[in-house]
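Q: What residues go here?
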């Protein structure tokens, strides 16, 4: 029995595998996945300890990769990672390049933490966030979700929809949330991006409160073959706020890669 929960949509076309972000689950982008499934076979995986996937010990990137790669289609696939899922996608592409034919990163930063020479989130902000998470995880998660949709025109409607989807599954344990957050903070995927051999695309929201827009150009400097796309007016979850535009950008990239 697999420890990783998977939903599969569509039975024709090349395979796509989608990895969600921290504290979320694959139901968050089910509607988006169903749109992609009109032309592709789409596999949505819940990260370990999230959604309907089982908790694991130790909670390490190595074990997560081992469990996730077992769920990949037999034929090489396009791997899509959102936020934390993007860091995991880069690590998978580096470790299992024969299983991945292209990588698409959505609202993802290969080095989430800000340093003197890299744009990201301030360490002090993350320290406060972690302290709040341990003190009141439910309230902290609701605030985190509101950050993801704060740039949307219909903020209240989209936030309620997001909360409704999240209620499908139990909230990840505090232990999982803390360890997955540590994974996001400590993982440095810049070398994986720099040495990437397959086609790659990075899609950022221009008003994302979690991923600075300037990190896109820094990623291109690391990987000149990376295709960078900025969606104006989009925040951290463009598959909710700018679904049609995001689909168009991704379809165009995959069609050119296939050609």
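A:
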């Amino acid at each position: 029995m697999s420890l990783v929960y998977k939903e599969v949509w569509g039975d024709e076309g090349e395979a796509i595998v989608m990895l969600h972000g921290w504290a979320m689950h694959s139901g968050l982008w089910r509607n988006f996945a169903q749109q992609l499934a009109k032309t592709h076979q789409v596999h949505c995986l819940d990260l370990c300890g999230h959604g309907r996937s089982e908790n694991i010990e130790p909670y390490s990137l190595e074990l997560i990769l081992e469990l996730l790669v077992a769920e990949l289609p037999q034929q090489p696939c396009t791997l899509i990672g959102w936020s934390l899922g993007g860091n995991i996608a880069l690590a998978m592409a580096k470790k299992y390049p024969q299983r991945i034919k292209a990588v698409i990163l959505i609202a993802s930063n290969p080095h989430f933490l800000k340093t003197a020479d890299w744009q990201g989130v301030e360490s002090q902000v993350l320290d406060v966030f972690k302290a709040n998470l341990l003190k009141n995880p439910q309230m902290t998660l609701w605030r985190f979700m509101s950050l993801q949709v704060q740039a949307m025109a219909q903020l209240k409607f989209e936030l309620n929809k997001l909360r409704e989807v999240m209620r499908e599954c139990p909230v990840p344990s505090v232990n999982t949330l803390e360890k997955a957050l540590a994974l996001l903070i400590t993982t440095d995927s810049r070398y994986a991006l720099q040495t990437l051999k397959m086609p790659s695309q990075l899609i950022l929201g221009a008003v994302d409160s979690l991923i600075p827009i300037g990190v896109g150009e820094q990623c291109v400097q690391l990987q000149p073959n990376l295709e960078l796309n900025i969606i104006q007016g989009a925040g951290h979850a463009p598959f909710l706020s700018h679904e049609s535009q995001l689909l168009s950008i991704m379809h165009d990239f995959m069609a050119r890669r296939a050609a």
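A: Context that may help when evaluating the design: Strands lie at 6-9, 15-19, 41-45, 77-82, 100-106, 200-205, 227-231. The first strand starts at residue 6 and ends at 9.
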